């Protein structure tokens, strides 16, 4: 049985390059592709890929938020992150959000094929270069501040970083504006922030938003 693969990247040249690579292997079948997180979510409603390759930064829903949603709605779909960034904090956040594998886009073809096969067989895969950085940066004192937030606080944080207002978030979550303000106050305290610009800057730095 061939491994059914779904490629997700907002750059067509990347998708084409990956398809040309995978077509060289008889045991891998690219069944579809998506150019955004929203497009991927729609396709996963009727497709059952064995592995999904996923870019971290794309238009619309992406990054940690997208990984969490896919993991919640499609827990049996392995996610292999292909990113231009190999910082330990980004890798750690992706894996904790539900990804099964993480590779830097500058990895060689054999590594990518090995990772796809590993995930399809139920395993996990982290490129050795990324894993080494992760090992050196796993000390608690170096853990990213956003990992101390609750799931709801993290969601509010991401929405604020994207430019949504307190009223917008309250409407989205069907909670009061006072409750949203409380979440904002707590997350600002936990992250030691004093301004909205710090939220945006941090979110961009950690690829939590585009």
From TrEMBL:
The family database entries (SMART domains) matched by this protein are listed as: HTH_LUXR (SM00421), REC (SM00448)
Would you kindly state one Gene Ontology biological process term found in this protein's UniProt entry?
phosphorelay signal transduction system
Q: From the UniProt record, which GO molecular function terms apply?
A: DNA binding
Recite the UniProt keywords alphabetically.
DNA-binding, Phosphoprotein, Transcription, Transcription regulation
Transcription regulation as a keyword of this entry, yes or no, is yes
Q: Which residues are annotated as modified residue 4-aspartylphosphate in the UniProt record? A: 55
Q: Which residues form the Response regulatory domain?
A: 4-120
Any one Pfam family here would be: GerE
Q: Which superkingdom, per the lineage?
A: Bacteria
Domain HTH luxR-type, chain residue ranges per copy? 140-207
Checking PROSITE patterns in the record gives: HTH_LUXR_2, RESPONSE_REGULATORY
* Entry protein name: Two component transcriptional regulator, LuxR family
Species of origin:
Marinomonas mediterranea (strain ATCC 700492 / JCM 21426 / NBRC 103028 / MMB-1)
């Amino acid at each position: 049985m061939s491994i059914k693969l779904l490629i997700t990247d907002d750059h067509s040249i990347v998708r084409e390059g990956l398809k040309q690579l995978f077509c060289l292997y008889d045991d891998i079948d690219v069944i579809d592709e998506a150019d955004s997180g929203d497009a991927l979510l729609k396709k996963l409603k009727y497709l059952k890929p064995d592995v999904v390759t996923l870019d971290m930064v794309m238009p619309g829903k992406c990054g940690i938020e997208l990984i969490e949603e896919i993991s919640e709605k499609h827990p049996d779909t392995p996610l292999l992150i292909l990113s231009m960034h190999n910082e330990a904090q980004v890798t750690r956040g992706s894996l904790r959000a539900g990804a099964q594998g993480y590779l830097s886009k500058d990895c060689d073809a054999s590594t990518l094929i090995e990772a796809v096969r590993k995930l399809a067989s139920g395993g996990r895969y982290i490129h050795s270069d990324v894993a080494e950085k992760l090992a050196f940066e796993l000390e608690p004192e170096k853990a990213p501040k956003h990992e101390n937030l609750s799931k709801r606080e993290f969601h509010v944080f991401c929405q604020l970083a994207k430019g949504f207002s307190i009223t917008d978030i309250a409407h989205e979550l069907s909670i009061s504006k006072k409750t949203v303000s409380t979440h904002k106050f707590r997350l600002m305290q936990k992250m030691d922030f004093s301004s909205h610009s710090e939220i945006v800057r941090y979110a961009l730095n950690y690829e939590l938003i585009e």
